[in-house]
Amino acid sequence: MGTLAYEVKDQVAILTIQSPPANALSSNLLEDLEKRLDEIENDNNNIKSIVIKGEGKFFSAGADIKEFTSLQNASDYESLAGRGQDLFDRIEHFSIPVIAAIHGAALGGGLELAMSCHIRIVSENAKLGLPELTLGIIPGFAGTQRLPQYVGTAKAYEMILTGKPISGGEAASFGLANHAVKEEEVFDTAFNLADTIAAKSKLSINHIMQLIPYAKTKQFAEGVKKESEAFGKIFGSDDAKEGVQAFIEKRKPNFQDK
């Protein structure tokens, strides 16, 4: 699993994204993450908490946009969105608490991954956002449904429609992050929190992980399904093709609104 390092320390599993330079969420990374979750779930070492972090400059700067260009039609894109949504839903409903240790940037799919985790520790100057609309596309890994739950609908509209990220400090003030700390303290803070959780009874932890998700509204599942459908349709548009190509060519897109 070359995109994802794995180690266990004091009943805490540490998953490190290793997909330089941006730690982009490629299909290989998603597959590796699925396999590691299987391994952790079947582990007899009594893992009680998990920390996900990124190696290098970023937690994850987003999905692998170049990989998207290899897909051919709307159903392919809808299937891709569905796969990411299913994986992140699995994380959100995982029987073991998952903590995201975010430094540098969590953008697009990177933020969607972080939002599926149960707790987020961020560096004060990290950038968190969903910039998909600047590429002529939309979030596809449940970002339109999870972000409003953390920051409220008004701020979610602003963040998604403008594509502008917020800082780690702002993320904590809006409720998107639990704590904002200095960058050099992010992992230690996340690990110490995971270690504190790991000191609790596994039986008690498992029951809490089952109970809290009941607070989510039934509309979430419907919203996520509609998001994947829209993701597929939009990726087939001329503006999406222009936006993605402009991103790859590092230029400003020329949208024609079609």
Question: Shape, please?
Answer: globular
Secondary-structure element series? EEHEHHEEHEEHHEHEHHHH
Report the average pLDDT across residues: 91
Number of H/I helices:
11
Description:
The protein is of the alpha/beta class and 258 residues long. The chain is built from eleven helices and nine strands. It has helices spanning 27-41, 65-68, 74-92, 109-116, 143-151, 153-162, 168-174, 186-198, 202-211, 219-235, 238-249; strands at 4-9, 12-17, 49-54, 98-102, 105-107, 119-123, 127-129, 166-167, 179-181. The strands form two sheets. It has a six-stranded mixed sheet, sandwiched between helices. A three-stranded mixed sheet has the order 5-7-8. Helix 3 (74-92) runs parallel beside helix 4 (109-116) and helix 5 (143-151) packs across helix 6 (153-162). The longest helix has 19 residues, at 74-92. The radius of gyration is 18 Å and the shape is globular. The mean pLDDT is 91.
What is this entry, summarized?
This protein is of the alpha/beta class and 258 residues long.
List keywords for this structure.
about 260 residues, alpha/beta, 3-stranded mixed β-sheet, 11 helices, 9 strands, globular
Topology of this protein?
Layout: E1 4-9, E2 12-17, H1 27-41, E3 49-54, H2 65-68, H3 74-92, E4 98-102, E5 105-107, H4 109-116, E6 119-123, E7 127-129, H5 143-151, H6 153-162, E8 166-167, H7 168-174, E9 179-181, H8 186-198, H9 202-211, H10 219-235, H11 238-249
Parallel strand pairs: 2-3, 3-4, 4-6, 5-7, 6-9
Antiparallel strand pairs: 1-2, 7-8
Helix pairs in contact: 3-4, 3-10, 5-6
